[in-house]
Amino acid sequence: MYPVGTLNWALELHEHGIVPGLFYSDSEQENHFLTAREWQHFFSVTNRTIITMNARHFRDKNFLQWAQKYKPKYIEIQNGASAKDEDHIGKRPDDLIILKLLKSFAKLYIKDIVFYGGQFSNEVKNLMDAVNVKNSRAAGSNTTHSIEESIRYAKENFNLPIIASGGIYTKNDHVNALAIGADCVLLGSVFAMSTESNLSNNAKQLVLTKQNKDIKQLGPDHRNGLSLGGLDNNDDNNLTKNLNSLSQHGNNGVVYVGKGIDTITSILPIREIVKIFN
What we know:
Elements: H1 7-15, E1 21-23, H2 36-45, E2 50-53, H3 55-58, H4 61-70, E3 74-78, H5 95-103, E4 107-111, H6 122-127, E5 130-133, H7 147-157, E6 162-165, H8 171-179, E7 184-186, H9 189-192, H10 201-208, E8 216-218, E9 223-228, H11 240-249, E10 253-256, H12 270-277
């Protein structure tokens, strides 16, 4: 979806035995990113979290210093960046050095491999602990691959554990993903719609009042989502301004959602959502 986790959100997930996923950002101005004090508090409790960043942050010295300071247990690298001309992971000379540094304290996996899997060198693949595959039901997805096709692609191209993400909304979705070859699943929209997330109320209500048939392909990259009000046309391919507008302020913008939103009928606390999957 996009970063909606707060400190309390992450700690609540941890309390229920779920590994929370948090986006790394060098910005503290946007209220869906943790501040330096909040990061310090979180890591004083646990390092059991999935830290996600794109290719740009992956290569940023501030991120590397931050990662070495806190040593998160899992690091997810999105195989893409904010700019179209940004090289994918493994394409720059220093990428292997960075991967080896991160590997010294964290488990590593790459997200969005369906389009770029064939580009990875064996050296990069050998440093990965798992791969995360999305599918056409995922929030913000622009692929036509089904979850079965995505998992099969990962099995054919990587000899690694597979994390399935996208379209996992119910216990049956979870069981089905494991049955067709995933080793574990990643949940996005379900927990983004929790009481504890700081997604704006307007964005949550938009999701509650819409169905799968209302999802549109938004922006230049044709990503699955919903829109509200007037949009800012001066935006990047990921529609970052429009995403931030709706997620933070709730007036206008877009929200990326998966094609399983019909099953989300109310905003529940995390403890109640967890029961659905038990």
